[in-house]
């Protein structure tokens, strides 16, 4: 038996090497948890889509008024706010900051594109 087959007696290793849980109660709990994760992932994607709709409007407004795509003061406030929210939610603040920095970089890229297209975003 391979190492993975001996570590968890309720796990049956399939031909593809992925573990399939033999215990029906464990399998049901995994399914329930994974369905919750899938639902949360879908909600995150939809929330990000809504956020980007708002930031596109901000980008158009900035372009129309010849404002810079980036706003470092706003970004710093957002990072501090998100770190605090993460701490309160018992989420690693450094992870939350990395995620927001990734989102901010994408937003700035969109704003630069909008500014380069004369404010239309096309």
From TrEMBL:
<dbReference type="InterPro" id="IPR010951">
    <property type="entry name" value="CM_bact"/>
</dbReference>
<dbReference type="InterPro" id="IPR051331">
    <property type="entry name" value="Chorismate_mutase-related"/>
</dbReference>
<dbReference type="GO" id="GO:0009697">
    <property type="term" value="P:salicylic acid biosynthetic process"/>
</dbReference>
<dbReference type="InterPro" id="IPR002701">
    <property type="entry name" value="CM_II_prokaryot"/>
</dbReference>
<protein>
    <submittedName>
        <fullName>Chorismate mutase</fullName>
        <ecNumber>5.4.99.5</ecNumber>
    </submittedName>
</protein>
<dbReference type="InterPro" id="IPR036979">
    <property type="entry name" value="CM_dom_sf"/>
</dbReference>
<dbReference type="InterPro" id="IPR036263">
    <property type="entry name" value="Chorismate_II_sf"/>
</dbReference>
<dbReference type="Pfam" id="PF01817">
    <property type="entry name" value="CM_2"/>
</dbReference>
<dbReference type="GO" id="GO:0046417">
    <property type="term" value="P:chorismate metabolic process"/>
</dbReference>
<dbReference type="GO" id="GO:0004106">
    <property type="term" value="F:chorismate mutase activity"/>
</dbReference>
<keyword id="KW-0413">Isomerase</keyword>
<feature type="domain" description="Chorismate mutase">
    <location>
        <begin position="24"/>
        <end position="115"/>
    </location>
</feature>
